[in-house]
Amino acid sequence: MTARILDGNVLSARVRGEIAERAAVLAAEGVQPCLAVVLVGDDPASAVYVRNKVAACDKAGIRSLRYDFPRDVAADEVMARIAALNEDPAVHGILVQLPLPPQFDEAAVLEAIRVDKDVDGFHAENVGRLSQGQQAFIPCTPHGVMKMLEAEGVPVQGAEAVVIGRSNIVGKPMAMLLINAGATVTVCNSKTRNLAAHTRRADILVAAVGRPRFVKADMIKPGAVVIDVGINRLTDGPDAGKLCGDVDFAAAKEVAGIITPVPGGVGPMTITMLLANTVESAARAAQARSQ
Ligand code: NAP
Question: How many CA atoms does the CB half-sphere of 265 hold within 13 Å?
Answer without folding.
Answer: 29
